[in-house]
Write a structure and sequence with these properties.
It contains seven helices and no strands. With about 180 residues, it is an all-alpha fold. The chain has one domain.
């Protein structure tokens, strides 16, 4: 793996860890859009085209979620559109069981990012991280493996920071 490929993974790693330490839906999905673009380019360089295509779609999805979540009527339409799109991408770029991991991982985050409550957004992102750890290990993305492992750790830290029963002066997770 060359330096540029590795650097993309490590940059995404740093930004992604910061993302889940936010308690605002918009901040999480915007930072995750940046990580998706970095990983998209990295996967292209690694020849992992299902990962690249699903991350590109994930970036667009996150940008739309960040903008359109103020209108509840569009939430379900957008989520359904991206679930179908991820399945179509998976069919078009199919490369065996690894493709299934990338598709399932993005389906998990599509559903989790459609949830405005950051507590549940984080919780439903964990299965995606597990699938992407395996995908990244198999495709040679060391930064991706580290990123997903640290995202899970970051989610656990954020759960302790934000999702526990509130004490006096502590705010609850953002809700719709």
């Amino acid at each position: 793996m060359d330096l540029i490929t590795a650097m993309l993974g490590y940059i995404a790693f740093l930004v992604g860890i910061i993302a889940f330490q936010s308690n605002k839906h918009k901040h999480i999905v915007l930072l995750k859009a940046f990580t998706d673009i970095c990983f998209c380019i990295q996967y292209i360089l690694l020849g992992a085209y299902t990962g690249a295509a699903t991350d590109l779609a994930g970036c667009v999805r996150n940008l739309i979620f960040a903008k359109e979540f103020k209108r509840k009527n569009t939430q379900y339409i957008i989520t359904t559109f991206f679930v179908v799109l991820m399945i179509v991408i998976g069919i078009v770029t199919w490369d065996g069981w690894l493709s299934l991991l990338a598709i399932a991982g993005k389906l998990c985050t599509t559903v989790s990012f459609s949830i405005k409550n950051t507590k549940y957004l984080r919780l439903f992102t964990i299965p995606s991280g597990i699938m992407w750890i395996i995908y990244n290990a198999a495709t040679g993305s060391v930064g991706g493996v580290l990123y997903e492992a640290m995202v899970i750790v970051s989610i656990i830290i954020a759960a302790f920071r934000f999702d526990r029963k509130p004490k006096s002066g502590v705010t609850e997770p953002e809700k719709s």
